[in-house]
From TrEMBL:
It is an enzyme of class 5 (isomerase). Its cofactor is pyridoxal 5'-phosphate. Residues 194-325 form the Alanine racemase C-terminal domain. The lineage of its organism: Bacteria, Pseudomonadati, Pseudomonadota, Alphaproteobacteria, Hyphomicrobiales. GO terms for molecular function: alanine racemase activity. Catalyzes the interconversion of L-alanine and D-alanine. May also act on other amino acids. Pathway: Amino-acid biosynthesis; D-alanine biosynthesis; D-alanine from L-alanine: step 1/1. The active site is at Y215 (proton acceptor). It comes from Devosia algicola. This is Alanine racemase. CDD domains: PLPDE_III_AR.
């Protein structure tokens, strides 16, 4: 199998200088590829790990008093104001300082002459542009950043970028939209998809009317059928929810540019695909099937599986050969 995408290879000089990772190990991987990048760790400062952040020149997104105290203590110990961002919770109840802690955070940082690199928060309902919570969070965020004049601010995720300039501030943090996924409910993403995924056909076989396909015998063939057995399954992030049964459509793939349905249950390592409609234009074993690409979009897969594009992309894990395409110099 091959996952082909166009994020930066090692020799790529990015136009973007600021990167956000969830975890510190992800940040270390980015640092190895991009020595001059500004890298923020969204999950914050892991207890006892301050020296690693300093060595790797990583910026924790600090979201609690305990994190702040540990980071400031490291700055005092080394007599250097190491950069970090501050995250305030404006209504999502995930990571972030409570709003009533803003004055304490301001006092602590001013007392030590510590200037954060960025003040941030996160929108809960930006994928629903008319949701009242968006305006409430915007107002609360504006009240927070007024305590930190001159410090860059960041609120907008992918959907927030599309919500309008009021949400942009000095830095935006687009995610799924950059990969071609839908960020706003009911709105097509104007950004191009950059991920394609292909899996190999392992066998072509003829199946007869009345026979069943896959575990559980959940689908009975109503006609003479040509099946392509494809080397991908739920161990590769091809969800079991894309299975089909008699009377229920599942997912689909593209074979030689034609949309072909998945037949029966998705197995750990295999799927069966109905290629009967291809007629005599049959593929051969070893030929690639499009799982994601120009004919099968991220959100096509997400909709068929009853999930979101974010999960489709993050499910693509270790068993793929990855090829990075595009400018490398």
């Amino acid at each position: 199998m091959a996952l082909v995408s166009c994020p930066w290879p090692n020799r790529f000089t990015p136009l973007v200088r600021d990167f956000f990772t969830a975890t510190v190990d992800e940040a270390v991987t980015v640092r190895a590829a991009l020595q001059d990048a500004h890298i923020f760790v969204m999950n914050g400062l892991y207890p006892g790990a301050a020296n690693l952040y300093v060595r790797q020149n990583l910026m924790p997104v600090i979201s609690s008093m305990a994190m702040l105290e540990e980071w400031l203590a490291k700055c005092i110990e080394r007599n250097e104001a190491y950069p970090a961002a501050l995250h305030f919770d404006t209504g999502m109840n995930r990571l972030g300082f409570r709003l009533n802690e803003a004055s304490i955070v301001q006092e602590q940082t001013e007392k030590l002459g510590f200037a954060p690199q960025m003040i941030m928060s996160h929108l809960a309902c930006a994928d629903m542009p008319n949701h009242e919570k968006n305006r409430t969070q915007l107002a609360l965020f504006q009240s927070v950043i007024s305590r930190f004049p001159g410090i860059p601010a960041s609120l907008a995720n992918s959907a927030g970028v599309m919500a309008g300039r009021d949400y942009h501030f000095q830095m935006v943090r687009p995610g799924v939209a950059m990969f071609g996924g839908r960020a706003v409910i009911g709105r097509t993403n104007p950004m191009a998809a950059v991920v394609t995924l292909h899996a190999p056909i392992l066998q072509i076989k003829a199946a007869r009317t009345g026979e069943t396909v896959g575990y559980g015998a959940g689908i009975t063939l109503a006609r003479e059928t040509r099946l392509a057995i494809v080397g991908i399954g739920y161990a590769d992030g091809f969800f079991r929810a894309l299975s089909s049964s008699t009377g229920r459509m599942g997912g689909a793939v593209a074979v030689r540019g034609h949309i072909c349905p998945v037949v029966g249950r998705v197995s750990m390592d295999l799927i069966a695909v109905d290629i009967t409609e291809l007629g005599d234009d049959l593929p051969i074993p070893g030929e690639g099937v499009e799982i994601l690409g120009p004919n099968i979009g991220i959100d096509d897969v997400a909709d068929a599986a009853g999930t979101i594009g974010y999960e489709v992309l993050t499910a693509l894990k270790g068993r793929y050969t990855r090829s990075y395409v595009g400018e490398t110099e």
